[in-house]
Design goal:
13 helices, five-stranded mixed beta sheet, elongated, three-stranded antiparallel beta sheet, single chain
C-alpha cells in the first residue's frame, strides 16, 4: 500500500557546513517525523471511515455512523515519545452522528494505549538501555538525544514492565543437556553475602547455549531450579554444590575445572597445608587425573579415568588425614568424568561462568538491589545475549 508523503518546511541556515546542516536537521527531525506520521494515520483513518462497521465504537454503542470533525487540529496535539525525541501529532477527530460525541483517533490508529507517551517498542528500547548501563548513565544519554523527558524512574519502570513479559523455559526441541550454577547478588537487607542468582542453561543444536530458567533466592535454596531440571530430565554439568546435587534426581557431571579446587578445599578441611609434601603429591595426581587426551575415544577414555579414580581412592582410603577428601570422592565418584559417557554433555561449566560475568557487569554497579529489580535487569540482559531478544 503506497502513501504519498508531502513535506513543506521553511528553514533558516547560515552556511553550508556539514555540522551546521546536521544541527539544523536535529532541530526539525521530530517535526518532520510528526508530519509523516500524521499523514500516514490520516490515510488509514480515511480507509477506516469508509467501512460499514468501524473498528472503534462510541460510548453510546454506535460503530458505523461517524463523520470527520477535523483531520488536522493544530491547536491540540498528541504527544508521543519515540527514539528520535518527542513527537507532537495534530489530532484527528471524528464525531458520532447519534450522540454528537467526539472521538480522538490518533492513539487508536497508532496502536497506543490512552494516556501513554511511550509505545511498547520504545519501552523495550528504554529497558534494554537500563539493563546494559546504570540508570544514571542511561538517563543522561537519553536526555542528550531528547528521548527522555522525565527522570530515570521512567527507565526503571520500563525495565520492570518489559522484564515481566520475558519468560524462560526449557525448549524440548533442543538438547536435554545443560549447565547449572549460581553467583552472589547484592540484595538489600540480606547481610554481607546477599542472595544467590540460580541459573540453568540449555545446550542448543547449533552449538550455543540458551537460558532455560532464572531465579534469585537465598544461598543453599535450589528447589526451584532443581525442580525444572528433574521435571524435564536435563543432564547437567555443575560445580559440585551439595545443596544442589542433593536435590537432583538426574544424571549430572562435575565440572572438570572445579575438581582440583574442591580437592584443595577438602585438603584444607583435613588440615593438610601447602607446605606438606602430601599436599603436593595429591595435587600432582589430581592434575594428572583431570588431564584429558582428546585423541582417544570417549568410551576408552571413560574406562581409563574410572580405573585411575578407583586406584587413587584405594591408595589413600586408609590415610586418616585424608578422611575429608576420601568422603568427597566416595560421594561423587559416580559423577566424575560423566561427560565422557553422556552425549552433548560439556566437559566444564565455563559457558555458564561467562553468563555470570555478563550478569555481574551490570549488577555489581550501583550498590544493593531489590530482588525484583535485580531479577528484571538480569532477565533482559540474559534474554538479549542468549535467547535472541531484541528491543
Amino acid at each position: 500500500m503506497k502513501v504519498n508523503i508531502k513535506l513543506d518546511f521553511n528553514i533558516n541556515i547560515e552556511d553550508s557546513k556539514f555540522d551546521t546542516i546536521i544541527q539544523l536537521v536535529k532541530k526539525i527531525l521530530c517535526e518532520i517525523i510528526s508530519t509523516i506520521v500524521h499523514q500516514i494515520i490520516v490515510y488509514f483513518a480515511e480507509i477506516e471511515m469508509k467501512k460499514d462497521v468501524k473498528s472503534f465504537k462510541c460510548q453510546c454503542g454506535n460503530d458505523h455512523n461517524f463523520v470527520f470533525a477535523t483531520k488536522k487540529n493544530m491547536a491540540r496535539r498528541t504527544k508521543i515519545n519515540s527514539f528520535f525525541g518527542q513527537l507532537e501529532i495534530p489530532l484527528i477527530i471524528v464525531r458520532c452522528k447519534e450522540c454528537r460525541k467526539q472521538i480522538y483517533l490518533n492513539r487508536f490508529m497508532l496502536g497506543i494505549d490512552k494516556k501513554k507517551q511511550y509505545t511498547s517498542t520504545t519501552k523495550k528500547f528504554l529497558a534494554s538501555i537500563g539493563s546494559f548501563s546504570t540508570f544514571r548513565v542511561a538517563e543522561k544519554t537519553l536526555k542528550s538525544i531528547g528521548l527522555l523527558k522525565k527522570s530515570k524512574m521512567t527507565i526503571w519502570r520500563s525495565v520492570q514492565e518489559v522484564a515481566n513479559t520475558i519468560n524462560f523455559e526449557v525448549d524440548k526441541n533442543e538438547f536435554m543437556t545443560g549447565q547449572v550454577d549460581g553467583t552472589g547478588i547484592p540484595i538489600r537487607n540480606t547481610g554481607i553475602r546477599g542472595e544467590e542468582l540460580k541459573l540453568l542453561m540449555q545446550n542448543t543444536k547449533e552449538g550455543g547455549m540458551r537460558i532455560a530458567s532464572v531465579s534469585i533466592d537465598k544461598y543453599k535454596k535450589w528447589k526451584e531450579i532443581a525442580g525444572v531440571i528433574n521435571e524435564n530430565k536435563i543432564d547437567v554439568v555443575c560445580d559440585g554444590d551439595r545443596t544442589l546435587t542433593n536435590n537432583l534426581s538426574v544424571n549430572y557431571s562435575l565440572c572438570l575445572w572445579h575438581i582440583p579446587h574442591l580437592v584443595k578445599y577438602e585438603l584444607w578441611r583435613g588440615g593438610i597445608r601447602k607446605t606438606n609434601h602430601l599436599y603436593a603429591e595429591i595435587m600432582r595426581k589430581i592434575f594428572d587425573l583431570c588431564k584429558i587426551d582428546k585423541s582417544k575415544m570417549k568410551r576408552e577414555l571413560y574406562i581409563n579415568k574410572k580405573i585411575e579414580l578407583n586406584n587413587f581412592i584405594y591408595e589413600y582410603k586408609n590415610n586418616k588425614s585424608l578422611k575429608s577428601l576420601m568422603r568427597y570422592f566416595k560421594l561423587y565418584r559416580n559423577h566424575l568424568f560423566e561427560f565422557l559417557k553422556h552425549k552433548n554433555l560439556d566437559m566444564t561449566n565455563s559457558k555458564i561462568e561467562r553468563a555470570m560475568r555478563i550478569v555481574n557487569d551490570r549488577i555489581n554497579v550501583g550498590g544493593c538491589w531489590s530482588r525484583k529489580g535485580a531479577l528484571a535487569a538480569i532477565k533482559i540482559r540474559l534474554a538479549h545475549y542468549y535467547n535472541g531478544w531484541n528491543p
